[in-house]
C-alpha cells in the first residue's frame, strides 16, 4: 500500500508547485519575447485557445493520473500543458515510407502503412503521431527505451548548435 | 478510430496471439467472451520458488484508455505475498501510472509504459512471485513475516498452494 499511496501523494503535491508568472503570456497570447519561446510553442498555445472555444470541452492530464476538463484546470496546469504541447511539436514528424526500418508501431501493434503520419523520437524510435502524442502528454519518455524526451531534445539542440 | 475501438483492437490482437502461441508460465482468456476488457489468467507457480506447484487465478481489468493507462490486476486465488494485498490486488510499479515529477520521467522505467502487453505484465508478475520487493509492500504483514519469520511465511504460502490445487 505504501507505494501506491506515496505515488498518489507525490502526484498531488507536485500539482501545487508554481511556475514563473511571466509564463502566463504564453497562454494569453502575450508578446512571448522570452528566449525559450519558439514559434512552435506559440503556435501550440493558439491551438490551445481554439480548443478552449469549442463547446465540447476537451480533457487534459495535468498529471498522469489526473484527468480534468480544460475549464477546470488551474492556470499553472494550463501553462504546464501548453509547454508540453510546444515541446511535442518540436519533435520531428513525417510520413512513413516503405524504406524505413521499423515495421510496427509498438504502441498500437499495427504495422506502419506508407502514408501514416509518424513521429521520430530523438532516440530514433518511431511511432504513429496519434499514438505517441497522447502518451507524451502524460509522460515525457520514449516507451521503448525510456529515454526522457525533453533532456534528449535539448542535448540534440546543443550538439547541433556547436556544429 | 475512437479510443475504445483502438484499445479493443489491441487487446483482441493479443488474445489471438496468445491463443496461437501460448507463453510458458500462464494461460490467458476472457472472463466473459463479450467483454474484451476483462481477462482471466491462470498463473503457474514459478518452478524453484516458494510458489512452485500452485495454480493462481487472477483477473485483469483494462481501462478504455489502454495502452495509455495500465490495467488493474487482482488475484482471485488466495495468495500470501508481500506485493499482493489481502484482497488480491497486485501492487507493482509497472502497473502504476507514470509519476508527476518535473516531466514525468523520474524512474519512468519502473512505471507503466504503453508498450506493455498481457504477456509482459504477467512476466513481471511471475518474476515478482519469485522475487518479492519488500520496499513497497501491499501486504505489510506478509512483508514483515518474509523478513523476520521466514519459516512461518513459507508455511502460509504452502497452505495457499495446497488450496489452489484443490480449486
Ligand atoms: Zn501506433
Ligand atoms: Zn526510444
From TrEMBL, chain A:
Alphabetized SUPFAM superfamilies for the sequence: RING/U-box (SSF57850)
A GO CC term assigned to this protein in UniProt: ubiquitin ligase complex
Listed CDD domains: RING-H2_RNF11 (cd16468)
PROSITE patterns: ZF_RING_2
GO BP of this protein: ubiquitin-dependent protein catabolic process
Keyword annotations from UniProtKB, A to Z: Metal-binding, Zinc, Zinc-finger
Molecular function GO terms recorded: ubiquitin protein ligase activity; zinc ion binding
Annotated ranges, domain RING-type: 105-145
A Pfam family the protein falls into: zf-RING_2
The name this protein goes by in its record: RING finger protein 11
Organism, scientific name: Folsomia candida (Springtail)
TrEMBL record, chain B:
Alphabetized CDD domains for the sequence: UBCc_UBE2G1
Lineage: Eukaryota, Metazoa, Ecdysozoa, Arthropoda, Hexapoda
GO MF term set: ATP binding; ubiquitin conjugating enzyme activity
Keyword Nucleotide-binding: yes
Keyword annotations from UniProtKB, A to Z: ATP-binding, Nucleotide-binding, Transferase, Ubl conjugation pathway
SUPFAM superfamilies from the UniProt entry: UBC-like
Source organism (scientific name): Folsomia candida
GO BP terms in the entry: protein modification by small protein conjugation
Enzyme active site: 91
Ranges for domain UBC core: 6-166
Coiled-coil features, chain-numbered ranges: none
EC number(s) stated in the UniProt entry for this protein: 2.3.2.23
Role, per record: Accepts ubiquitin from the E1 complex and catalyzes its covalent attachment to other proteins. In vitro catalyzes 'Lys-48'-, as well as 'Lys-63'-linked polyubiquitination. May be involved in degradation of muscle-specific proteins. Mediates polyubiquitination of CYP3A4.
Record protein name field: E2 ubiquitin-conjugating enzyme
The UniProt record lists the keyword Transferase: yes
Domain of life: Eukaryota
Amino acid at each position: 500500500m505504501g507505494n501506491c499511496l506515496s505515488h498518489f501523494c507525490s502526484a498531488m503535491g507536485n500539482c501545487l508547485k508554481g511556475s514563473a508568472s511571466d509564463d502566463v503570456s504564453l497562454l494569453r497570447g502575450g508578446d512571448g519575447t522570452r528566449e525559450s519561446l519558439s514559434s512552435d510553442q506559440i503556435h501550440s498555445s493558439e491551438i490551445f485557445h481554439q480548443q478552449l472555444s469549442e463547446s465540447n470541452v476537451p480533457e487534459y492530464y495535468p498529471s498522469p493520473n489526473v484527468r480534468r476538463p480544460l475549464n477546470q484546470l488551474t492556470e499553472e496546469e494550463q501553462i504546464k500543458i501548453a509547454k508540453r504541447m510546444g515541446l511535442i511539436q518540436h519533435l520531428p514528424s513525417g510520413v512513413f515510407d516503405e524504406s524505413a526500418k521499423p515495421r510496427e508501431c509498438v504502441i498500437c501493434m499495427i504495422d506502419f502503412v506508407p502514408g501514416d503520419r509518424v513521429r521520430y523520437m530523438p532516440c530514433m524510435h518511431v511511432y504513429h503521431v496519434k499514438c505517441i502524442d497522447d502518451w507524451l502528454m502524460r509522460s515525457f519518455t520514449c516507451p521503448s527505451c525510456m529515454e526522457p524526451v525533453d533532456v534528449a531534445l535539448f542535448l540534440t539542440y546543443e550538439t547541433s548548435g556547436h556544429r | 478510430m475512437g479510443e475504445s475501438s483502438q484499445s479493443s483492437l489491441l487487446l483482441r490482437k493479443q488474445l489471438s496471439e496468445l491463443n496461437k502461441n501460448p507463453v510458458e508460465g500462464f494461460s490467458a482468456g476472457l472472463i466473459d467472451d463479450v467483454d474484451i476488457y476483462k481477462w482471466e489468467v491462470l498463473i503457474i507457480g514459478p518452478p524453484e520458488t516458494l510458489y512452485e506447484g500452485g495454480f493462481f487465478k487472477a483477473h485483469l481489468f483494462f481501462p478504455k484508455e489502454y495502452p495509455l493507462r495500465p490495467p488493474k490486476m487482482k488475484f482471485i486465488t488466495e495468495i500470501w505475498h508481500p506485493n499482493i494485498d489481502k484482497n488480491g490486488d497486485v501492487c507493482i510499479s509497472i502497473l502504476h501510472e507514470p509519476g508527476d515529477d518535473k516531466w514525468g520521467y523520474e524512474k519512468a522505467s519502473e512505471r507503466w509504459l504503453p508498450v506493455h502487453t498481457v504477456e509482459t505484465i504477467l512476466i513481471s508478475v511471475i518474476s515478482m512471485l519469485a522475487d518479492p520487493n519488500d520496499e513497497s509492500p501491499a501486504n505489510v504483514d506478509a512483508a514483515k513475516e518474509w523478513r523476520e519469520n521466514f519459516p512461518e511465511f513459507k508455511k502460509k504460502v504452502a497452505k495457499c498452494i495446497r488450496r489452489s490445487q484443490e480449486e
